[in-house]
Amino acid sequence: MTGEKKKKKRLNRSILLAKKIIIKDGGTPQGIGEPSVYHAVVVIFLEFFAWGLLTTPMLAVLHQTFPQHTFLMNGLIHGVKGLLSFLSAPLIGALSDVWGRKSFLLLTVFFTCAPIPLMKISPWWYFAVISMSGVFAVTFSVIFAYVADITQEHERSTAYGLVSATFAASLVTSPAIGAYLSVTYGDTLVVILATAVALLDICFILVAVPESLPEKMRPASWGAPISWEQADPFASLRKVGQDSTVLLICITVFLSYLPEAGQYSSFFLYLRQVIRFTSETVAAFIAVVGILSILAQTVVLGMLMRSIGNKNTILLGLGFQILQLAWYGFGSQPWMMWAAGAVAAMSSITFPAISAIVSRNADPDQQGVVQGMITGIRGLCNGLGPALYGFVFYLFHVELTDTDVPPALSSRTPSAIIPGPPFLFGACSVLLSLLVALFIPEHTGPGMRPGAYKKHSNGAQSHSHSPQGSGAEGKEPLLEDSSV
After folding, report:
1. Which of 56, 67, 115, 233 sits between 20 and 30 A of 153, alpha carbons compared?
2. pLDDT in tens, 352-400
3. Using an 8 Å Cβ cutoff, are 28 and 94 in contact?
4. d(CA 369, CA 135)
């Protein structure tokens, strides 16, 4: 018992120290202005812009480091990262519900970008740190919880669409810029620039991002314990099974994001070697699809949510994804890839619509937990997807390991009826996802919300609810405290 008391005292001292670092002495949260969606947008843009710059150099370093079975090793690296992300996402989400979002934004962005400078220092350490960075590579989980803190329910889908569109916007120009600088000045300059952008993102969080979670929405004490049940990803998956709505949403996310994750890991190289795009055409393709995705996730998403509702927007997005993957699978001409890319942009409305329906059915003090659960499933897909695609390419003898040969000489089955077999497997997976999503209810009652079974009976958690108490339980979980 004495040892436990000492541990608790040390933990409380650490918590108070962390609180002093994050909160100024006067008790005013650090940051510029009131918390807004634009703070979240800048954080996401800078993080993924830095990684987008490395698109071309990373393929070269990957092939140089693993000349044999390049994409199988790529799948293994991303598999370890995805598994760690799956394991850690619920804990990060639960901790951010207690300690606030800003500190965990800083933590996740720092560790996600930590491997960047190692690309030129030591490729082996670079890939090792990428694998290990999965423990904290859950920025989207914290960002979506941040957005949920500062928006009301009817605004949330638009805000999530803006955040997702920013991810697309970060990839509009960064791969082309990185490819140009790599050819003109070498990979070292690209790595230095990406590192500088990542440092800028970290500084922006430290200086400009205000805390979004109101103090009264947190537990009464920073010493409030986080139970193992909240942090255990498998426990949260078991909880998912107790609620039919959350179970349906999670299965939909898994089946739809699994092929997307695999596609993201290998598609640009597939365009280069099998469809015979030039490097310039690949960069232009990324830019055009990125711009169309921005329009889809801002203008189109908002109109669809208002006109046909949340659930039908998800179904429409999944329908576009099936069409896109089937077109990629059967397409053998460049114009087919361009047409399928336009459809892919429309399919990007699915995830923000899913995030909105998840957020709407969660209590305000549980936004980090539920977003962490969804991000954890996506992390698992990020591990399984690349390995699955690489294995299917291998089974069908579509060789993707040699990045040095000209596109015209790349290996390909001469009379292949299906140029891209993994994409057809992906289309079948998304079709199953669409069938599951048909059973998701458009409106969920308070008793069905994930937060209803995520709350615990300990004293600290009982103080974390909004002051309205039981009167708020009968309402939709609007964030009355969104104005900090």
Report:
1. 233
2. 888 888 877 766 666 666 766 776 677 778 778 877 887 787 777 665 4
3. no
4. 16
